[in-house]
Amino acid sequence: xxxxxxxxxxxxxxxxxxxxxxxxxxxxxxxxxxxxxxxxxxxxxxxxxxxxxxxxxxxxxxxxxxxxxxxxxxxxxxxxxxxxxxxxxxxxxxxxxxxxxxxxxxxxxxxxxxxxxxxxxxxxxxxxxxxxxxxxxxxxxxxxxxxxxxxxxxxxxxxxxxxxxxxxxxxxxxxxxxxxxxxxxxxxxxxxxxxxxxxxxxxxxxxxxxxxxxxxxxxxxxxxxxxxxxxxxxxxxxxxxxxxxxxxxxxxxxxxxxxxxxxxxxxxxxxxxxxxxxxxxxxxxxxxxxxxxxxxxxxxxxxxxxxxxxxxxxxxxxxxxxxxxxxxxxxxxxxxxxxxxxxxxxxxxxxxxxxxxxxxxxxxxxxxxxxxxxxxxxxxxxxxxxxxxxxxxxxxxxxxxxxxxxxxxxxxxxxxxxxxxxxxxxxxxxxxxxxxxxxxxxxxxxxxxxxxxxxxxxxxxxxxxxxxxxxxxxxxxxxxxxxxxxxxxxxxxxxxxxxxxxxxxxxxxxxxxxxxxxxxxxxxxxxxxxxxxxxxxxxxxxxxxxxxxxxxxxxxxxxxxxxxxxxxxxxxxxxxxxxxxxxxxxxxxxxxxxxxxxxxxxxxxxxxxxxxxxxxxxxxxxxxxxxxxxxxxxxxxxxxxxxxxxxxxxxxxxxxxxxxxxxxxxxxxxxxxxxxxxxxxxxxxxxxxxxxxxxxxxxxxxxxxxxxxxxxxxxxxxxxxxxxxxxxxxxxxxxxxxxxxxxxxxxxxxxxxxxxxxxxxxxxxxxxxxxxxxxxxxxxxxxxxxxxxxxxxxxxxxxxxxxxxxxxxxxxxxxxxxxxxxxxxxxxxxxxxxxxxxxxxxxx
Length: 844
What we know:
The protein is mainly β and about 850 residues long.
């Protein structure tokens, strides 16, 4: 045993000796000074406190005195100055040093190329290399180095901490800057990738998105329907009802461009590619004063906005479409982002396509049953985006982008019972294209501006050739909008920031109808100019979040002002409880109306129109909500009561199927109710339950009755969901929705039709006095992630909508029986039946 201990001791001693021989040994500077004084017969003059804590490697004994002095100046932060042959002073006065550092992003440790390095209170500066490295010579010892990079917090470091005395540079990390005081409140909200912010808005982070029941990808407008208070009465993202509003009452923004169209397959698929869309913010109330238009909600989509200097991309295919996206560095400060998607359904049919086609065109001429016609239809869609990112320097950032969305349908028919084989063709084209640009400038550490410009164009064109009358009907609806906005941000301190700005919009709309026989043409053009000033303050400390603002709108055509106050408060009562108060006034100058049920082949019946402040007034909303929140150990419970009054709606944009559908009138609706959500999350799972109770009534003074249920009056709505990581790379999500059927109007029993001049019409009973059967749907998704190589990741996702194949009626109306004018035929529109879909994706 003693021998072993001796051996161990010998090895330790040998190891220490070897280490000491291979590693430079530092000695106290005071000891080295005494040694040099004896060697060269000189004297050092110094303050003991300046040198007592300094250690240094001993220089070679062969150096001359001048070489020794140069060595001491290079290896210490002290200034050694030769006065004469006998005396040398040592001080920290007038000392200059060489500094060096390597700058990284704190989150992903990525080197930051082009970061600014400034010697404070001097003109000395440089920028970091592609590897994030910087070096400066002859820097005053007591100076401060300021590091800055666009989108990151500024950092200041004493120069002596960056002193380059060897070969290694100090590693420095910069923290991404929070542009707003509105911080993340719940990081995982229902499913990974959904977050809740302090102001009550919900953010979809597509990069971190998990899966939701029935979805095979983070479909932006399908995903938000999981939130309480957001429904789609006809199962379409082209008809999202937020707290009882119509779809045209939602403000949809893509990279600061206002969009007038949002869906493919006429509402079943979101038209916004999620792969380069970084986050989607949904606000139901208490919206920032920066935004107006959209009296029900604001859906704000933002794409990736950082120059990464990294080539990346991905591609995917499912049973409906294929897509690809790329991020391409063009220079160290210039980058191009591209994305595109196109349907594959015109190449081959799939069960998923057949279900979508049946659902989309079931109530149109395209899918009309007719034994005396031979018909053929062809449908496809595509979308694309492009964004150019240019960082002039750390203080100025320029962006330019474009988005295009298109749906195209061709339909032909010929008589089956005649020898005439002539074919009549009908077409429908629907597209929205937008161009935008913005300039972000960080003038000081506290003051910044953002100048935004955009142009948006929406078109729907239809040519309907009716073979039985040899008549051609051509319809066009066009929207042109140009916008300019200037935002100024001032950060008073870490708790308080101010926003103010100006916005100008010019909106023009065209509606045109042409009939060949008899010859008829109607064209209507309108233009509206709007000016707005807005300002708000945002405050956040440990317990209180407050955002209060005001927006002043001026409508030049009507010489009219509208003032819109906004408020958003969250107050923590304890570590687990908080109260929430939100309120807003908003306005809207655009609306969608229905002229006739067979407009645009009966596929897209709505057309955009501008207000005229007469028969189509400016729509205004007043909304307030109050709630309580509980959050402890990743259990989140919310209860919110809301009240919303929207005035200035028209009968023609509500889609009435009753005795009011051909009457032009203005009215209002009032929605009030409660929203409840319980969500428990853990490392591997998330489970949620939500319930919404609301009462939603119209009021039209000229109708009898004047008050009756809203078309979107869904009294009770439940949803439940579960997300689980089965193993590391395998995820499953299951969920269901149950809600009351929407209201509809029946004909009067025994007196179902009525004569109106030469026309026979359905004789409707009291409006919206009946309800469809309850709606119920169960969805599920399964996702498996794996690596094809070190740099290529892949995923396989399978989803099924309406797994129980529930037969849901989502709309019901009546029309006169062509074979018996005393009878009314019931027409039911059905939801999607059991619809599976699969996707395969790769990302690099």
